[in-house]
Amino acid sequence: MKNYDVAVVGAGPVGSTFARIMAEKGFEVAILEKKKEIGVPLQCAGLVGKRIKEVNVLPNEFIINPVHGGFLHSPQDTVLSVSKGKPEAYVLDRVKYDQFLAHLAEDSGAEILLNHGVEKIDSVNGVINLKNKEKTKISAGVVVGADGHSSIVSSTFNPLAESFQAAQYLIDVGEKRFQTNFVHLYVDSRVSPGFLWVIPLSESTARVGLFADANYQQLTIILNELLNKRSELRGATILKKYYGVIPRHDPHKQLVKDRVILLGDAASQVKPTTGGGLIMGFTSAEIASRAVSKALEVDNVEILTDYNKQYQERFKKELKVQLMVHKIFKSLNDDNLEYMFQKLKQEGAEDIISHYGDIDTQSTLVKEMFKRGIIFSILPKMLSWRISSLWK
Ligand SMILES: Cc1cc2nc3c(=O)[nH]c(=O)nc-3n(C[C@H](O)[C@H](O)[C@H](O)COP(=O)(O)OP(=O)(O)OC[C@H]3O[C@@H](n4cnc5c(N)ncnc54)[C@H](O)[C@@H]3O)c2cc1C
């Protein structure tokens, strides 16, 4: 049985990033990936905050467009326009970026084993059973479950993860209709706390999608409605259809057990408000790498629990605010959403969102809205009190 210091299950962006960091530190690392090609099919809108450049390598060739701002649409199309006049986010070529991150890991010394689906793990001994005829086994000092939303690794010590469904089309409208530096987001109580998006790739092509607590048939109906309703999307040719799963953030998920840790979607490290997982996953990979290196160096897997502690310190407060925002959106009907948008517009919230808004951290914006009394004017009293208690 081949033995490694670290075996990472899943060559997604987070698994590859973690593997690269550990290989750079000199550990013997294997990545076990069930697919024969990394990064396909695309299951991402590819919109990521500018902070990605602080938490991972991102060469410009994988950036399709910088994003300066967005238009937020209410159910009756009250529009809040927010912009900072400079890049706040990027639209990525996710397929090529995932492949690049895997190559970086390989260049740093990690061994990538494609067609290596993992069937079962023994968390105490770090033994991994592969899903092949030979029933091959691999062992490792630390096993990392970075195997996405339906993680086999997580399921050995966590209940089945809950998730949202997502659908996305790549469309071509045949003429120049889009501003490439601006995205459009649409709220609709049928999909809340999810939302719909239009992310231009060029002046005539875009990713149009949504995520919600609904089945794929319902998602498709709502997505098609958007295509028919919006004049800028009308007559679009659908070039590709993608479906995917976004895990619900679970604050109670166990991230460490014996010799095993979880990372990325497998650890439900996604922002509750947007479902975005790249920045949280990359940040967590760095946090985890410190605990895993130390545990391997002194041969004591109990140190792995440091990962959970440091992860909680880094994200707990922000996630609490986002989970609250998420809950509130879920409870609002279309009339409430409409009222909220109109009030926000009247109260001059576009400037505040433009100034304090951040695709990755919403707590600063929510806090500012409190300070200015805006939250009290847009939400029923009980809800406002619940949110304000977060800062007490
Ligand atoms: C429609 C959609 C839109 C999204 N848009 C955005 C966005 O705009 N911005 C953003 O930040 N995030 C977005 N996300 C979320 C983002 O894609 C994920 O958070 C991210 O891919 C998580 O990376 P990961 O490496 O943890 O997992 P994954 O990317 O899911 O990779 C897991 C890997 O593990 C492999 N694997 C699974 N099971 C096994 C097994 N048993 N054995 C071996 N290998 C296995 C899989 O084949 C896969 O390669 C979106 C998600 C969806 C579905």
From TrEMBL:
GO terms for molecular function: FAD binding; oxidoreductase activity, acting on the CH-CH group of donors, NAD or NADP as acceptor. Gene3D superfamilies: FAD/NAD(P)-binding domain. Residues 4-307 form the FAD-binding domain. SUPFAM superfamilies: FAD/NAD(P)-binding domain. Transmembrane segments: none annotated. InterPro entries: FAD-bd, FAD/NAD-bd_sf, Geranylgeranyl_Rdtase_fam, Geranylgeranyl_reductase. This is Geranylgeranyl reductase. It comes from Methanobacterium subterraneum.
